[in-house]
Amino acid sequence: MFLFIIFGAISIAAALGVILSRKPVYSALFLLLNFAALAAFYIMLQAQFLAAVQVIVYAGAIVVLFLFVVMLVGGGEIRDVTGLRPAGAREPSWTRIAALVLAVILVAGLGYGIITGALSAAQGSVETFGQGSVQAIGQALYTTYLFPFELTSVLLLVGIIGAVVLARKEQ
Amino acid sequence: MVPTSFYLILSALLFVIGVAGVALRRNVLIIFMSVEMMLNSVNLTFAALANHFMKLDGQVFVLIAMTVAAAEVAVGLAIVMEVIRHRDTTNIDDVNLLKG
Amino acid sequence: MLNYAWLMLVFPALGALVIALFGTRLGHRAISWLAPGMVLLSFGVAVWMFVTMLGLPVEERSHEVVLWSWITTGTFHVDVALLLDQLSITMALVVTGIGFLIHVYSTGYMHDDPRYPRFFTYMNLFILMMLTLVLANNYLLLYVGWEGVGLASYLLIGFWFEKPSAANAGKKAFIVNRIGDFGLVLAIFFIWTSLGTLRFSEVLTAAPARLATTGIATTITMLLLLAATGKSAQLPLFVWLPDAMEGPTPVSALIHAATMVTAGVYMIARSHILFALAPTSAAWVAWIGAITALFAATIALTQTDLKRILAYSTISQLGYMFLAVGVGAYASGIFHLVTHAFFKALLFLAAGSVMHALAGEINIRKMGNLRAKMPVTYWTFLIGAAALAGIPLLSGFFSKDEILWFAWQKSPLLWLVGAVTAACTAVYAFRAVFVPFWGKERDHKLFHHAHESPASMTLPLILLAAGALLAGYLGLPRQSAIEGWLEPVFAAGSGALATATPAVAGGFMRWVLLAVSALIALGGLAVAYWAFVRNTDVPRQVRESLGWAFTLAEKKYFVDDAYNALVGYIWDFGGWLARTIDQRGIDGAVNGVAGITGWAGGQIRRLQTGLLGLYALSILFGAVALVVWFVIK
């Protein structure tokens, strides 16, 4: 419980940091922090493999990518600090308020749903639960979920090709 | 033990923060990061529920979602890079060629 | 024998067709023989029919020749059939006989015209249509002929269509006639619905039985009167006839003097049974005729265009015919129709001869002493004018006098109008003689060029003059050959009714009126002589002293102007209406739809800000809405 509170606080703070930072570099780093906290959560949830993957993929690859881009593009000072009063004001002013209100409603709704159990799904049968270990995941992935697994590989291929094409210089 | 609902609430909060980032920030990179945060929060939900129902399906889904997110980030950043270079700005308000 | 009557129609039809198709290849000479020849053949057939009929007893003289069954639908049955009786054969003889003479004349008059073949196509077409009209045995076929002569009239009036005045005159004639035709069509409808038949013979027998008690007879006859005023140029639809003088003079002679304009009179005569059943309408016919006669005669006194004088004279004389049939003296009306055909055609052709000699000049003020240069034309014109004026012993005298006698029997007031008109007629007729042909020449250049016309033109003049002189003897009082001839046609109907036809013979009063008529005619001659030969200043003095009255008459009582203004108003209103409906209504609706669509599009377009933030917000908004929806459910 204690762990939960700690990591929870960290992740929330990091999240807020992401959206409120002045510099994109700080945002990226806060994001990294957030991912790390989530990895901790995965461990607490008996999903060790997931935690490892989270660190490797998210924290190790995605955030790195973000940082690369931020560096290349210029992660300097952004003129509009919080976005609450943007310089230039091309967007209608009511959108800010609207977004806030919407967010509140979303939370309220979700919370309500969760608490009263309205969003809960049906209970399934209890399987042999290998505690989220590598063996268990591997077993599930290569038998029951073989097809999605293969598709994901195709997906990654597409991603690679797409990235290469987009990054190519004009001939 | 931590009740599953706590995780769910936390995940909801993270999601909302992500939404706020998407709606309120003007820098395209930060928006992108907020989207990643939203994805992550959903992953957390899945994992929590997988734990709650004692089924492995939720974790498998998380795995797949991560894969998708990775691919998406790669391609997405490539596009964003091009747009930023082309328009010489990171402010999405400047990317308004679709204006009708 | 009488079954061959259809040949009368075949010859002009053939002529029109051949000349229409091959006219330019045939050449002037061939056409000059072909066109009149066809009419002559038609005339021959008519004479043949006439002689045959003479040999038959009176009851058998009416004969129907069915050519083919035309329309048969349900109970409606109409044939293309000819009715040969005394009335129709009389009309046919006039049409083909005088038509033939005018065709011969035209070969000379139209000799230099570039559209020579087309002229004769139209002329033959006209003869065909007129014969259809007079020989028809039912109202529908009569209507075909009616419209056909209207068409031919339009084509011939506007023959020289390069002249805007001619083209407009043609249009005017056709349009004004159309108003009358509308009346005829309605009348035909009513006849059909009330009597169930359109055949003259059947109408004759059915009408007294079925119509005697209802007012439908009055409706029908008033509509027929409307049609007749259109075709025969009476008030209020006479305005087209003076303008029709734009056409070639032979056309004026044939169509607008001798034949087409008499179609109205003929039709009323044919419908005599209906008029006998509607005395109110008959009275209308008589009075319209009388008033028109006087009206036109006063205008004729003031005109300086020779053809216009004759045109108004025609209107006036047609008024006499209307007067006659209006008081029930059908035979007299037809008699006057015949004599009028002779002397009016003669007058027009002679006027044409004058125009031909003076290179188209028609203003009598520019003429003078023409009798020295054109003797034949002069003498024939004189005979015609004398007949028109009603000089005793000429044809016009007999026929006009008869009408006046019958008018007196109906109403002395009618007689008075007729008598005053006769006086005016005499004056203007001899004015038309003295001013161009007597006195001193007024335009020396024109006079110098004047010459007598070729034989092709003078010969018909002479023949017509003979007719004008002698035709009167068909109707000597107490013998009245023509009346005896025609009477059976009209007796069949009137015999069934209690009303009596006016008495033919009469005692003392008859001779008194005869003498009065003679005096009027001779008096008119004297007045004309004094005013236009002896004391040539008189006309000017009269004109000045009459002042506004003269102007009124000279300007044709402003009837034309009134019509023009009326049409103008209707035209403007129609234009305004159409314009408003089109621009505001239709265009407004269409443009409005487009405008609304555009405006709506513009409003929706405001969503397309191009701002990604707004788009993301929209997605968020949708997602929230969905969530709320599911929660509430």
Molecular structure report:
- The complex is a heterotrimer of chains A (171), B (100) and C (633).
- Chain A is mainly α and 171 residues long.
- Chain A folds into 2 domains: 1-78, Four Helix Bundle (Hemerythrin (Met), subunit A); 127-171.
- Chain A contains 6 helices and no strands.
- Chain A has helices at 2-20, 24-44, 48-73, 94-116, 134-142, 146-167.
- In chain A, α1 packs antiparallel against α2 (24-44) and α2 runs antiparallel to α3 (48-73).
- Chain B has a domain at 27-93: Helix Hairpins (Orthogonal Bundle), CATH 1.10.287.3510.
- Chain B has 3 helices and no strands.
- Chain B has helices at residues 4-24, 28-53, 57-87.
- In chain B, α1 runs antiparallel to α2 (28-53) and α2 packs antiparallel against α3.
- Chain B starts with a helix and ends in a 13-residue tail after the last helix.
- A two-stranded antiparallel ribbon of chain C has the order 1-2.
- In chain C, α3 (116-135) packs antiparallel against α4 (139-157) and α12 runs parallel beside α17 (412-437).
- In chain C, 75% of the residues lie in helices and 3% in strands.
- Chain C has 633 residues and is mostly helical.
- Chain C starts with 6 loop residues before the first helix and ends with a helix.
- Chains in contact: A-B, A-C, B-C.
